[in-house]
Amino acid sequence: xxxKKCVFLQILICYHANRCRKSKKKEELxxxxxxxxxxxLCEGSYGIVILEVKKIVETELGSGxxxxxxxxxxxxxxxxxxxxxxxKSEGSLHYYIPKKYAVRKCGGKTKRExxxxxxxxxxxxxxxxxxxxxxxxxxxxGFVITSIDGKRTPLVVPDSQMENFIKVASHYEADLVYxxxxxxxxxxGDYVRIIGGAFNGAKGxxxxxDGKRNKRFVVTIxxxxxxxxxxxxxxxxxxxxxxxxxxxx
Length: 249
Prior knowledge:
The protein has helices spanning 3-23, 26-32, 35-38, 46-60, 80-90, 128-138, 159-169, 241-248; strands at 69-75, 94-96, 99-106, 109-116, 121-126, 141-143, 145-148, 151-154, 156-157, 177-179, 190-194, 203-207, 216-221, 225-229, 236-238. By secondary structure, it is α+β, with helices and mostly antiparallel strands. The longest helix has 21 residues, at 3-23.
């Protein structure tokens, strides 16, 4: 059902329901608002009907600003600690910051701690409005913008791709090596699924990387980041390209 049709339908129902409420004639509601039955609604409260139609409109518009998505965010200069602290205290926004272990000196002592992999990159899963409101309130992050059909729009990552990446990249103790996507030739990699072990269920590619003895398992957030790890062959199951992309949708 198109958005225009939904909006027209909502106006039509509001008009007829209001008339029927004033006349208190249920049969008029049943007769004149035959459209109710077309969308699977029975006779009843005009308020319920309006709410149901509103849901249809919101569903149709859901591909826009009301849809919950993984947004790619740019962190303003040296603001990662502040951004993470604010997101944690906010509590209502699900976020992910790729991290790695690094050895640092502090007060003459050496310690190993988790640090952001990229100092200005994080991901937030929420509606556009929720992220926009957070951005306006704290001014520490901004949307990474891309161009789709000539229109500037926030860059988003499909849930399946993000969950797949996190499933691997969140194992900080693993022998993970990160690359920019343009540093790897993914066109020559075999498509695989991991069965068993710490990365069970993850899907990616087996790719030969310069300087590495064995092929490495690669998961990618397209055009942003790739994580690679060396895995035991017994955990690797080959799948077709079609299976891989169907499962990534």
